[in-house]
Structures are given as structure tokens and as C-alpha cells.
Write a structure and sequence with these properties.
Length: 447
């Protein structure tokens, strides 16, 4: 039995390996690498984000016979959350801070062909959350893409490991860092931003793969012009763009009490600049959207039929919900954006005015059924969502466990969850027994 490179890279006994010739077009290069099942050329395997291999040699009948073939020590003892890349006979391994990269030849006893050791200021570790992790590498146009924790996005020559270009994406001095894997899609490199725990206004950015120049940047909060919301945003589902979806009740706190869902019939859809207007202004925080969080560090699929890329945004900042009344858009949102322009086609906020750090960054997975493409997302808030991928129409939103008790259900037209007042937490009220806790019914572990 021969050894398949991608399975061998994971220490599993497997099949065949095919070399990967370099070709001129960046898009064709990556698409060809992804199409070859012997490779693992994207953070989650391919554009669908399913993280599923098409190889069939390992099955239910023989999986019990798997055993370790070899190991490789990275020399770094913190969290290793992303999978290595495998392209042809080469495996590319990354580490937690300081984000070293190793290129191993799988045809030559895992020989280290090259290594890259970034020089980063150790102080960046103080503002990394959570743990000093790096969630993977990207590949395209003969380049290995590394997103360093200090915000530097680096393009390395896949054959030699030499730096081709680099660009500064975030600034740790203001609490903004990076823990995500860069995603190469066609001629763009997508990368995000971490730092919602430190009052950072986060974003998704696209850089040109050729030279690292900025193609577009879309913030998670702020005016439509900076969130890159266009005229057709949520055209089919205008209630996703309602000014307010809850009303205060009970007077349970000086800053606004508990919340009750506004009747769907009373919602006014199609509102503008919600990334500003849904951040109300108590005395404690002025223009809270300017420090509104909405981190972007997950794993992002792409649909070539519509040219849309999908991702989730994280929790709003600050954690104390009483100093940021309002829905806090567009934190806790799944967006679909045009790859070329960054303009949002649709976006639905899953946890308006998040009070529990549920985040919204878990991966979106694309799948086809009945001639249509759907986007599926298991959120940390305990609900699993299915949208029609092209226009965002909500098909299903169901609890993944009966213990989920912060909300009863989700309105299919508006996407708004029915919160329970007893689960709402405040400065002078500590809600108990809320499920799920901050880790969620599912954290970033892949589905």
C-alpha cells in the first residue's frame, strides 16, 4: 500500500500522491490544487468549507486500524488550532505565536525544506484572545499566506520560503490583532481582525494576492459606507435591517431593564446606517460603535456561482451590555459579500444586543440541495441556521439542544430571537443558569 500525502500528513495510513505543477493564473492555480483530492490546499479543504475529503480508502470498516505513521514537533507549546496545508509532496505547518512556518517534503522522510521565523514584539501576546493561536495558512499563486498575530500579513514563496511581500493589517498597540487563517480566493487574500475584548472596531479586509495592496475593507460596525452596505442589501428580507427589534420592559436596571421582542408586524425594515443607529448613547459610552468589536477570525466559504464570500462577526464591545443599549449591529452577524468589491449582499444578526459573549464567528458551510445552494451555521448561541445562500432568506433556525434557554425560538421573517427576560444580565442583576454559557453549544471546533 502506498501512502497518500494528505492522510500521511495527519499520521494516517492512506493512498496516492500527485505532484502539483505551478501555473500562471492565481485563480486557476488554487482551484486546480483544491480540486485534487490528494491535496489539502485551503484551511477547510475547499470553498464549501465542509472540511470533507473525497478520498475513500479510509472507511467505517477499516478506521479502527489507523495508527500514527510519524510525528513532527513544532517547538511551540501553545494552541495549534488550524490544519496544515498539503500541496503535492509538500506539507506546510504553522504554529502558535511566534507563528513559525515549516515546509516538509513528504517524499523525503518529512525533511524540512525551508522554515520561516517571524520577528514579532512579544508584547502582542498580552492582547491576544484567546490563547496565542494561529488558525492556519492560505495558498494560491505559488504563495503560502501567513497572518501573524501582530497583524502582519505575509506572502511566502511556496518553493523557497522567501518573503514576497508583507502588509500591516491590524495594530496591537490599540488591541487589534489577528488569529485567523488567511483565505486565498481567486486573486484576493481575505483576512480579519481580533480584539473585541479590547474595544477594537473590527473588519474583514481583502488584499490583492499579487502585491498585497488593499482591495477593500468592510467594518463590522459604523455607517453603511464603511460597513460596505449597498442599495440591494437585504432586498428580499428587509426586516433583517430593522432599527430596533426589542423593547425595554420591567425596568430591571437603570440602564434599560430587560428586553422583549417587538412584534414582527410593527418592525420597519430597510433602515440605513444601522451600524451607528443601533448603538444608543448612554452617559457611559459615546458613539459606542467606534469601539464596537465584531471580531472576524473564523473560516469562510465562497460560492463561485454568485461570487459571494460568507463569514460571521463576533461579540460587541464592551462586554457590559448596559453601557451599549440597542441591537449593536452589525456584531453577531453572518454576512454575504461580493468577493471583488466587498459590498454586502445580505446580512442577518443572530444575537442582537449580545449579553453573553456568544460570538458569531463559527464557520458557515455551503451545501447544495434541490438545485439550490444553502448556507448553514451552528452558532454559539445554541441555534443552527440555514439560509438560502444567494439572498439570505432564512429557511430554518432551530435549537440544537433543549437546554438552550436564553431564547425560545427565532422569527423566520426577521431573524430575531425571542429572548427570555430572566436570562438577561445587568450591572445589578446576575442571571443564573443561562444556557449556553460563553463557550456556546459549539465553539470554533469545526463542524
Amino acid at each position: 500500500m502506498k501512502l497518500n500525502k494528505i492522510k500521511l500528513a495527519l499520521g494516517l495510513v492512506a493512498g496516492l500522491s500527485v505532484a502539483m505543477p505551478m501555473i500562471a493564473s492565481a485563480a486557476a492555480d488554487q482551484e486546480k490544487a483544491i480540486a485534487n483530492a490528494d491535496n489539502w490546499a485551503a484551511p477547510r479543504g475547499d470553498y464549501t468549507n465542509q472540511a470533507h475529503s473525497k478520498l475513500t480508502q479510509i472507511n467505517q470498516g477499516n478506521v479502527k486500524n489507523l495508527k500514527a505513521a510519524w510525528t513532527f514537533a513544532t517547538g511551540v507549546n501553545r494552541g495549534h488550532e488550524g490544519a496544515p496545508l498539503v500541496i503535492g509532496n509538500m506539507m506546510y505547518v504553522h504554529t502558535a505565536f511566534p507563528n513559525n512556518v515549516y515546509a516538509l517534503d513528504l517524499n523525503d522522510n518529512q525533511k524540512i525544506v525551508w522554515s520561516y521565523f517571524p520577528k514579532q514584539d512579544p508584547s502582542v501576546q498580552a492582547v491576544l484572545c484567546c490563547d496565542n493561536v494561529s488558525r492556519g495558512l492560505g495558498y494560491g499563486d505559488g504563495k503560502i499566506m501567513l497572518q501573524q498575530n501582530d497583524g502582519t500579513l505575509v506572502a511566502l514563496d511556496a518553493a523557497s520560503g522567501k518573503k514576497v511581500w508583507d502588509v500591516k493589517n491590524t495594530d496591537p498597540k490599540v488591541g487589534a490583532t489577528n488569529t485567523n487563517a488567511p483565505h486565498v480566493i481567486k486573486d484576493k487574500v481575505l483576512t480579519g481582525c481580533s480584539g473585541a475584548e479590547f474595544g477594537v472596531r473590527c473588519f474583514m479586509a481583502a488584499y490583492n494576492l499579487k502585491d498585497g495592496s488593499l482591495a477593500w475593507k468592510a467594518y463590522s460596525t459604523g455607517p453603511d459606507s464603511e460597513v460596505l452596505i449597498g442599495k440591494d442589501f437585504n432586498k428580499e428580507n428587509p426586516l433583517y435591517s430593522a432599527l430596533s427589534v426589542y423593547e425595554d420592559v420591567n425596568g430591571g436596571n437603570k440602564q434599560g431593564g430587560s428586553f422583549k421582542k417587538i412584534d414582527t408586524a410593527k418592525l420597519k425594515g430597510g433602515e440605513k446606517d444601522l451600524g451607528v443607529k443601533t448603538w444608543l448613547k448612554p452617559q457611559a459610552v459615546k458613539d459606542g460603535w467606534q469601539h464596537g468589536g465584531g471580531s472576524v477570525w473564523g473560516w469562510w466559504p465562497y460560492d463561485p456561482k454568485t461570487n459571494l464570500v460568507y463569514y460571521g462577526t463576533g461579540n460587541p464591545s464592551v462586554w457590559n451590555p448596559d453601557v451599549r443599549p440597542g441591537d449593536n449591529k452589525w456584531s453577531m452577524t453572518v454576512f454575504a459579500r461580493d468577493l471583488n468589491t466587498g459590498v454586502a449582499r445580505w446580512g442577518m444578526q443572530m444575537t442582537p444586543h449580545d449579553e453573553w459573549d456568544y460570538d458569531g464567528i463559527n464557520e458557515v458551510i455551503l451545501f447544495d440541495n434541490g438545485g439550490k445552494t444553502y448556507a448553514w451555521h451552528h452558532d454559539r448561541n445554541g441555534f443552527a441556521y440555514t439560509w438560502q445562500a444567494d439572498n439570505g432568506t432564512l429557511v430554518a433556525a432551530e435549537k440544537v439542544h433543549p437546554f438552550v434557554n436564553w431564547a425560545t425560538d427565532v422569527d423566520k421573517k426577521s431573524g430575531v430571537p425571542n429572548k427570555l427576560a430572566t436570562a438577561s444580565t445587568h450591572q445589578d442583576y446576575n442571571a443564573k443558569g443561562v444556557c449556553p454559557a460563553a463557550l456556546g453549544t459549539k465553539d470554533q471546533q469545526p463542524a
